[in-house]
Specification:
CATH topology of the largest domain: Arc Repressor Mutant, subunit A
Number of helices: 12
Largest sheet: 3 strands, antiparallel
Radius of gyration: 21 Å
Strand content: 5-15%
CATH superfamily of the largest domain: Winged helix-like DNA-binding domain superfamily/Winged helix DNA-binding domain
CATH architecture of the largest domain: Orthogonal Bundle
Strand order of the largest sheet: 2-1-3
Distance between the termini: 46 Å
Length: 294
Protein backbone atom coordinates (compact mmCIF):
# COMPACT_ATOMS: atom_id res chain seq x y z
CA UNK A 1 0.00 0.00 0.00
CA UNK A 2 1.21 3.52 -0.72
CA UNK A 3 0.82 6.36 1.79
CA UNK A 4 -2.32 7.72 0.14
CA UNK A 5 -4.06 4.35 0.37
CA UNK A 6 -3.02 4.10 4.02
CA UNK A 7 -4.39 7.58 4.72
CA UNK A 8 -7.73 6.65 3.15
CA UNK A 9 -7.81 3.54 5.35
CA UNK A 10 -7.27 5.75 8.41
CA UNK A 11 -10.07 8.12 7.38
CA UNK A 12 -12.38 5.14 6.85
CA UNK A 13 -11.29 3.52 10.16
CA UNK A 14 -10.76 0.35 8.11
CA UNK A 15 -10.42 -2.61 10.50
CA UNK A 16 -9.22 -4.85 7.67
CA UNK A 17 -5.95 -2.92 7.60
CA UNK A 18 -5.22 -3.40 11.32
CA UNK A 19 -1.96 -5.29 11.67
CA UNK A 20 -0.66 -4.08 8.31
CA UNK A 21 0.58 -0.69 9.53
CA UNK A 22 0.16 2.01 12.16
CA UNK A 23 0.06 5.77 11.77
CA UNK A 24 1.78 8.32 13.99
CA UNK A 25 1.12 12.01 14.60
CA UNK A 26 4.20 14.24 14.68
CA UNK A 27 2.55 16.99 16.71
CA UNK A 28 1.49 14.73 19.60
CA UNK A 29 3.71 11.65 19.42
CA UNK A 30 0.64 9.38 19.34
CA UNK A 31 0.48 6.32 17.11
CA UNK A 32 -2.50 4.06 16.48
CA UNK A 33 -3.92 1.34 14.25
CA UNK A 34 -5.93 2.34 11.13
CA UNK A 35 -9.32 1.61 12.76
CA UNK A 36 -8.71 4.01 15.66
CA UNK A 37 -11.85 6.08 16.28
CA UNK A 38 -10.01 9.14 17.64
CA UNK A 39 -10.25 12.57 15.98
CA UNK A 40 -8.25 12.53 12.77
CA UNK A 41 -5.11 14.74 12.64
CA UNK A 42 -4.03 16.97 9.80
CA UNK A 43 -2.54 14.96 6.93
CA UNK A 44 0.75 16.89 7.04
CA UNK A 45 1.31 15.70 10.63
CA UNK A 46 0.86 12.00 9.84
CA UNK A 47 3.59 9.42 9.30
CA UNK A 48 3.12 5.71 8.53
CA UNK A 49 5.05 2.81 10.04
CA UNK A 50 5.10 -0.95 9.56
CA UNK A 51 5.17 -1.75 13.29
CA UNK A 52 4.34 -0.05 16.61
CA UNK A 53 7.99 -0.39 17.62
CA UNK A 54 9.23 1.60 14.63
CA UNK A 55 6.54 4.25 15.26
CA UNK A 56 7.54 4.59 18.91
CA UNK A 57 11.22 4.91 18.04
CA UNK A 58 10.61 7.55 15.37
CA UNK A 59 8.16 9.62 17.41
CA UNK A 60 10.40 9.58 20.50
CA UNK A 61 13.13 10.84 18.21
CA UNK A 62 10.99 13.88 17.50
CA UNK A 63 11.21 14.79 21.18
CA UNK A 64 7.71 13.67 22.18
CA UNK A 65 8.13 10.74 24.55
CA UNK A 66 5.31 8.62 25.90
CA UNK A 67 6.07 9.95 29.37
CA UNK A 68 5.68 13.58 28.28
CA UNK A 69 2.49 12.76 26.45
CA UNK A 70 1.05 10.98 29.49
CA UNK A 71 1.89 13.92 31.76
CA UNK A 72 0.23 16.39 29.40
CA UNK A 73 -2.85 14.21 29.12
CA UNK A 74 -3.16 13.85 32.91
CA UNK A 75 -2.96 17.63 33.36
CA UNK A 76 -5.67 18.20 30.76
CA UNK A 77 -8.10 15.39 31.67
CA UNK A 78 -7.32 14.46 35.26
CA UNK A 79 -6.55 10.82 34.48
CA UNK A 80 -3.98 8.81 32.57
CA UNK A 81 -4.41 7.81 28.91
CA UNK A 82 -4.44 4.20 30.07
CA UNK A 83 -7.45 4.82 32.32
CA UNK A 84 -9.33 6.49 29.49
CA UNK A 85 -8.55 3.72 27.02
CA UNK A 86 -9.54 1.03 29.52
CA UNK A 87 -12.87 2.76 30.13
CA UNK A 88 -13.55 2.98 26.39
CA UNK A 89 -12.57 -0.65 25.95
CA UNK A 90 -14.90 -1.71 28.75
CA UNK A 91 -17.81 0.20 27.23
CA UNK A 92 -17.15 -1.48 23.89
CA UNK A 93 -17.05 -4.87 25.65
CA UNK A 94 -20.44 -4.27 27.28
CA UNK A 95 -21.89 -3.01 24.01
CA UNK A 96 -20.68 -6.13 22.17
CA UNK A 97 -22.07 -8.55 24.76
CA UNK A 98 -25.41 -6.74 25.02
CA UNK A 99 -25.63 -6.79 21.22
CA UNK A 100 -25.43 -10.57 21.11
CA UNK A 101 -21.70 -11.14 20.54
CA UNK A 102 -20.45 -14.18 22.46
CA UNK A 103 -17.81 -13.92 25.19
CA UNK A 104 -15.26 -15.72 23.03
CA UNK A 105 -15.88 -13.52 20.01
CA UNK A 106 -15.95 -10.32 22.09
CA UNK A 107 -12.56 -11.14 23.58
CA UNK A 108 -11.14 -11.61 20.07
CA UNK A 109 -12.74 -8.44 18.70
CA UNK A 110 -11.24 -6.41 21.54
CA UNK A 111 -7.81 -7.98 20.97
CA UNK A 112 -7.43 -9.85 24.27
CA UNK A 113 -4.79 -12.57 24.18
CA UNK A 114 -7.09 -15.02 26.00
CA UNK A 115 -10.63 -15.40 27.29
CA UNK A 116 -9.28 -15.57 30.84
CA UNK A 117 -7.66 -12.17 30.29
CA UNK A 118 -11.00 -10.80 29.08
CA UNK A 119 -12.71 -12.20 32.19
CA UNK A 120 -10.11 -10.63 34.50
CA UNK A 121 -10.42 -7.25 32.74
CA UNK A 122 -14.23 -7.31 32.82
CA UNK A 123 -14.37 -8.23 36.51
CA UNK A 124 -11.81 -5.55 37.41
CA UNK A 125 -13.65 -2.86 35.48
CA UNK A 126 -17.25 -3.81 36.28
CA UNK A 127 -17.20 -6.02 39.37
CA UNK A 128 -18.86 -8.96 37.61
CA UNK A 129 -17.93 -11.57 35.02
CA UNK A 130 -18.99 -11.44 31.36
CA UNK A 131 -21.38 -14.35 31.94
CA UNK A 132 -23.01 -12.52 34.86
CA UNK A 133 -23.36 -9.45 32.65
CA UNK A 134 -24.97 -11.55 29.91
CA UNK A 135 -27.54 -12.81 32.42
CA UNK A 136 -28.35 -9.23 33.36
CA UNK A 137 -28.86 -8.44 29.66
CA UNK A 138 -31.05 -11.48 29.15
CA UNK A 139 -28.53 -12.98 26.71
CA UNK A 140 -27.20 -15.98 28.55
CA UNK A 141 -24.56 -18.04 26.73
CA UNK A 142 -25.02 -21.83 26.56
CA UNK A 143 -21.97 -24.00 27.26
CA UNK A 144 -21.24 -27.68 26.75
CA UNK A 145 -17.97 -29.46 27.59
CA UNK A 146 -16.85 -32.33 25.38
CA UNK A 147 -13.96 -34.76 25.95
CA UNK A 148 -12.04 -35.22 22.70
CA UNK A 149 -8.73 -36.60 21.40
CA UNK A 150 -7.38 -33.03 21.72
CA UNK A 151 -8.48 -32.64 25.33
CA UNK A 152 -11.65 -31.21 26.82
CA UNK A 153 -13.36 -28.79 24.46
CA UNK A 154 -15.65 -25.90 25.44
CA UNK A 155 -18.56 -25.52 23.02
CA UNK A 156 -20.67 -22.37 23.30
CA UNK A 157 -23.75 -20.97 21.61
CA UNK A 158 -26.12 -18.04 21.80
CA UNK A 159 -29.55 -17.50 20.26
CA UNK A 160 -29.48 -20.90 18.54
CA UNK A 161 -26.11 -20.55 16.80
CA UNK A 162 -22.68 -21.92 17.75
CA UNK A 163 -20.34 -19.10 18.74
CA UNK A 164 -17.22 -20.88 19.98
CA UNK A 165 -15.14 -24.06 20.04
CA UNK A 166 -11.93 -23.96 22.06
CA UNK A 167 -9.96 -25.90 24.67
CA UNK A 168 -11.65 -25.68 28.06
CA UNK A 169 -9.80 -24.05 30.93
CA UNK A 170 -8.95 -26.11 34.00
CA UNK A 171 -11.99 -26.43 36.26
CA UNK A 172 -14.34 -24.92 33.71
CA UNK A 173 -17.95 -26.13 33.91
CA UNK A 174 -20.66 -26.58 31.31
CA UNK A 175 -24.35 -25.74 31.47
CA UNK A 176 -27.20 -28.05 32.46
CA UNK A 177 -29.24 -27.48 29.29
CA UNK A 178 -26.89 -26.88 26.35
CA UNK A 179 -29.60 -26.55 23.72
CA UNK A 180 -30.15 -28.45 20.43
CA UNK A 181 -27.40 -26.66 18.46
CA UNK A 182 -24.69 -27.74 20.92
CA UNK A 183 -26.05 -31.29 21.02
CA UNK A 184 -25.89 -31.31 17.23
CA UNK A 185 -22.33 -29.96 17.27
CA UNK A 186 -21.31 -32.58 19.83
CA UNK A 187 -22.56 -35.39 17.56
CA UNK A 188 -20.88 -33.85 14.51
CA UNK A 189 -17.56 -33.51 16.35
CA UNK A 190 -17.68 -37.11 17.57
CA UNK A 191 -18.28 -38.25 13.98
CA UNK A 192 -15.49 -35.99 12.76
CA UNK A 193 -12.96 -37.42 15.24
CA UNK A 194 -13.82 -40.91 13.97
CA UNK A 195 -12.99 -39.80 10.43
CA UNK A 196 -16.63 -40.10 9.34
CA UNK A 197 -17.63 -36.42 8.97
CA UNK A 198 -15.96 -34.06 6.52
CA UNK A 199 -18.16 -30.95 6.65
CA UNK A 200 -20.03 -29.43 9.59
CA UNK A 201 -23.68 -28.45 9.14
CA UNK A 202 -24.45 -26.85 12.51
CA UNK A 203 -25.36 -23.13 12.27
CA UNK A 204 -22.56 -20.85 13.46
CA UNK A 205 -22.06 -17.16 14.25
CA UNK A 206 -18.45 -16.01 14.40
CA UNK A 207 -17.93 -12.31 15.08
CA UNK A 208 -14.87 -10.58 13.67
CA UNK A 209 -13.63 -7.81 11.41
CA UNK A 210 -14.46 -8.03 7.69
CA UNK A 211 -10.88 -9.14 7.05
CA UNK A 212 -11.11 -11.91 9.68
CA UNK A 213 -14.41 -13.13 8.23
CA UNK A 214 -12.87 -13.21 4.75
CA UNK A 215 -10.01 -15.36 6.07
CA UNK A 216 -12.37 -17.68 7.97
CA UNK A 217 -14.51 -18.16 4.86
CA UNK A 218 -11.42 -19.07 2.87
CA UNK A 219 -10.36 -21.51 5.60
CA UNK A 220 -13.69 -23.30 5.29
CA UNK A 221 -13.03 -23.79 1.59
CA UNK A 222 -9.74 -25.69 2.07
CA UNK A 223 -10.58 -29.30 1.10
CA UNK A 224 -10.70 -31.96 3.79
CA UNK A 225 -7.35 -33.71 4.17
CA UNK A 226 -5.40 -30.96 2.39
CA UNK A 227 -3.29 -28.02 3.54
CA UNK A 228 -2.46 -24.51 2.39
CA UNK A 229 0.31 -22.11 3.42
CA UNK A 230 -0.38 -18.72 4.99
CA UNK A 231 1.00 -17.07 1.87
CA UNK A 232 -1.27 -19.12 -0.39
CA UNK A 233 -4.25 -18.25 1.80
CA UNK A 234 -3.35 -14.55 1.57
CA UNK A 235 -3.26 -14.85 -2.22
CA UNK A 236 -6.59 -16.70 -2.21
CA UNK A 237 -8.36 -13.80 -0.49
CA UNK A 238 -6.73 -11.23 -2.78
CA UNK A 239 -4.24 -9.83 -0.23
CA UNK A 240 -0.90 -11.38 -1.26
CA UNK A 241 1.16 -9.12 1.02
CA UNK A 242 -0.92 -9.91 4.11
CA UNK A 243 0.39 -13.35 5.14
CA UNK A 244 1.16 -12.09 8.65
CA UNK A 245 -2.33 -10.57 9.06
CA UNK A 246 -3.80 -13.83 7.75
CA UNK A 247 -1.88 -15.69 10.44
CA UNK A 248 -3.32 -13.38 13.08
CA UNK A 249 -6.85 -13.97 11.79
CA UNK A 250 -6.26 -17.72 11.94
CA UNK A 251 -5.04 -17.38 15.53
CA UNK A 252 -8.25 -15.52 16.44
CA UNK A 253 -10.53 -18.11 14.85
CA UNK A 254 -13.25 -18.69 17.49
CA UNK A 255 -14.42 -22.02 16.00
CA UNK A 256 -11.57 -24.51 16.18
CA UNK A 257 -12.02 -27.55 13.93
CA UNK A 258 -15.37 -26.31 12.57
CA UNK A 259 -13.48 -23.53 10.78
CA UNK A 260 -10.37 -25.58 9.91
CA UNK A 261 -7.46 -23.24 10.63
CA UNK A 262 -5.44 -26.39 11.38
CA UNK A 263 -5.17 -26.89 7.60
CA UNK A 264 -2.88 -23.86 7.24
CA UNK A 265 0.86 -24.51 7.56
CA UNK A 266 4.12 -22.61 7.28
CA UNK A 267 5.81 -22.04 3.90
CA UNK A 268 8.16 -24.97 4.61
CA UNK A 269 5.32 -27.23 5.72
CA UNK A 270 5.94 -26.65 9.44
CA UNK A 271 3.00 -26.88 11.84
CA UNK A 272 2.88 -23.50 13.52
CA UNK A 273 0.43 -21.20 15.26
CA UNK A 274 -2.47 -23.40 16.43
CA UNK A 275 -4.52 -22.41 19.47
CA UNK A 276 -4.84 -26.02 20.68
CA UNK A 277 -1.12 -26.70 20.22
CA UNK A 278 1.12 -28.20 17.55
CA UNK A 279 0.47 -31.80 18.68
CA UNK A 280 -3.26 -31.28 18.26
CA UNK A 281 -2.72 -29.79 14.82
CA UNK A 282 -0.56 -32.74 13.78
CA UNK A 283 -3.19 -35.20 15.05
CA UNK A 284 -6.00 -33.51 13.12
CA UNK A 285 -4.06 -33.40 9.86
CA UNK A 286 -2.94 -37.01 10.18
CA UNK A 287 -6.48 -38.15 10.96
CA UNK A 288 -7.93 -36.26 8.00
CA UNK A 289 -5.34 -37.58 5.55
CA UNK A 290 -5.87 -41.12 6.72
CA UNK A 291 -9.66 -40.79 6.47
CA UNK A 292 -9.43 -39.11 3.04
CA UNK A 293 -7.21 -41.94 1.77
CA UNK A 294 -9.75 -44.50 2.90
Amino acid sequence: MNDEAKWQAVLAMDRTKDGLFVYGVKSTGIYCRPSCASKKPKRENVLFFNTPASAREALDGLGVSRERLSEAYCRAWGESPKKTLEALRFEEAKKSLAGGVSILNASALLHFESVSGFYAFFRRMGGLTPREYLKECGREEQVLLLDSPLGRLRLSSMAGRVTGVRLAAAGEKGGEDPGPELSELKNELLSYFKGELRAFQVPVAAEGTPFMKKVWKALSEIPYGQTMTYRELAQKIGCPASARAVGMACRRNPLLIVVPCHRVVGSNGSLTGYAAGVKAKAWLLKMEKRAAAN
